[in-house]
Amino acid sequence: MSAAQPPAPPLPTGTQAAILLLSTAAFFSGAALRVCDSLLPRLAADFGRTPGTAGRVIISFSVAYGLMQLLFGPLGDRYGKIRMVCLAMFGCAVGALACALAPGFDALVGLRVLWGMAAAGVIPLALAWIGDAVPYEQRQATLARLLTGTLAGMMGGQLMGGLFADAAPGWRGAFFTLAAGYLVVAVLLVVRVRRLPAAAPAKGQPHKSFIAQLTSVLRVPWARVVLAAVLAESIFLLGPMAYLPSYLHTRYGLTLASASALIALYAVGGLVYSMSARHIVRRLGERRMVASGGLIMGAGYLAWWLSPIGWLAGPIALAVGFGTYLFHNTLQTHATQMVPAARGTSVSLFAFCLFVGQAVGVSLAGYAFDHIGAVPLLLCPAVALPLAGWAFARALKRRATAP
Question: Alpha helix locations (H) across 253-312?
C-alpha cells in the first residue's frame, strides 16, 4: 500500500456503532481465551495435577472452539453473522457459569468444551461482518479497532486469572465474573441488534451445503497459504505462551499475579499496534509488516530465555505483542478476503486453524514443560516465528507479482 494514497473517508456512523458493540463482545471473548493461562498453577494445586495436565482446560476449549468454526461460519453466511454472535454470547454465559460450578477436574475439562463451542461464534463472525461492511482499503485499520477490544479482554483475562489464582475465590470466581460479563453484553446485543446496519451480503451461493462452502474455500490456493501461516503462528506463539506465567513463577519466584501482569503487557503491545495501525499500514506495507512481526516475536522468545531479571519479561511481552499483530492482523485481513462469497466460512476456517494450532502448541508445550524444561518452550518459537514471517512475506511478494 502506497504512502501517497489519500486518507479514506470515515465509515458511516451506524457502522462505527456496530463495530463498537462487537468490540465489547470481543473484550469478554478475549478474556476467556487467556484467563486460564494464569490459573494453571492454581488448578494444578486444587486438583492435584501437574501444570502440563492442568493445561487440558486450555486444550479442550481450543479444540472445541476450532471445530465449531466449521459449523458457525456457514451458519453465519446463511442466517446472519450478528444474529449468530448474539446466540453465541448467551451460550458463553451458560458455559462459563457451568464451568464455575464444575464439581471436579474432568467435569471442568468437559464443560470447557461446551464453553469453547459457544465462544466460536463471537470474534470470527464479528470479523466476517466487518469484511462485509467495510471496503478492503479501510479494513485492516478497522479490524484493528475490533482487535482493541479483543486485546483489552486478553489483558484483562490474564490479569483476572492471576488475581483470582492468588485469591480465595480462585478459578470459580474468575469464571463467575466472565459469566456475568457475557450475559450483560448478550442482552445489549439483543436490544441493539435490530438497529445495527445490515451489511450487504456478498454475491455468491449462500445456500450451498456446509461441506460445499468449506471446500469452496479450501480449493483456493491463496486461502491454503493464509491458513497454513496462521496454523504455524498459533502452534509456535500461542502454545508456549500459555506456560509463560508458570515459567516466570518457577524461574524467578514471582507470584502468579505478578507473572500474569508482566505477560499481560503482551496485549498492551497489541493495543499500541491497533492505535497506530492506519499509519503503519501506509508506511510499511504488508510484506514488511509480516517479516518484521516474525522477527520481533522470535527475538522476544529468545529474550525471555536469556533474561537474568524477571521484571524484564514485561517489556519483552509488550514488544512481542506489537510484533504479533504486525503479522496476525495482516493474516486476518487476508482471511476476510479469501473467498468473499463465503466470508463467514472463510474467517471461521481461519479461526479453526488458529485454535487447533493453539491446542497442538499447548499440548507440545505442556509436555516439554513437565518433562524437558523451558528451553524448547522458548527456543523453538525463537526460530520458527521469524521463518513463518519470512515465508508469508515471500508468498505476498509472489502473489503481488503474479500475472
Answer: 256-306
Q: Which amino acid is at 335?
A: A
- Give 43's contacts (C-beta < 8 A, 6+ positions apart): 36, 49, 54, 57, 105, 108, 171
Place of cell 490474564: 158
Using DSSP's 3-state secondary structure scheme, residue 337 falls into coil
pTM of the full structure: 0.70
CATH of the domain at 185: 1.20.1250.20
List Cβ neighbours of 341 (8 Å cut-off, separation of 6 or more). Answer: 202, 203, 204, 205, 206, 216
Total domains, the chain: 1
Does 5 map to a domain? no
> What is the tens place of the pLDDT at every residue in 280-305?
888 888 899 999 999 999 999 999 99
Residues 400, 403: Cα–Cα separation, whole Å? 8
Residue 64 corresponds to which cell in the numbers above? 472445541
Per residue in 5-54, pLDDT tens?
A: 455 666 666 677 777 788 888 898 888 877 888 888 888 888 888 877 88
Q: Is residue 6 part of a domain?
A: no
Residues 6+ apart with CB under 8 A from 373: none
Which residue range is the domain that position 106 belongs to? 13-199+207-401
SS3 of 210, please? helix
Burial degree of 375 (CB within 10 A; 0-12, 13-18, 19+): exposed
8 within domain boundaries: no
DSSP state of 2: -
Comparing CA positions, the residue from 161, 362, 380 lying closest to residue 243 is: 362
Closest CA to 77 of 215, 204, 192, 221: 204
CA-CA distance, 300 to 385, in Å (whole number)? Answer: 10
What sections of 101-238 are H helices per DSSP?
Answer: 105-119, 123-133, 136-165, 170-193, 210-218, 221-233
Residues 213-233 as b or e (16 or more Cβ within 10 Å = b): bbebbeeeeebebbbbbbbbb
| Alpha carbons 166 and 171: distance in angstroms, whole number | 10
At residue 110, φ and ψ (nearest 5 deg) are: -65, -40
Longest CA–CA separation in the chain, Å: 63
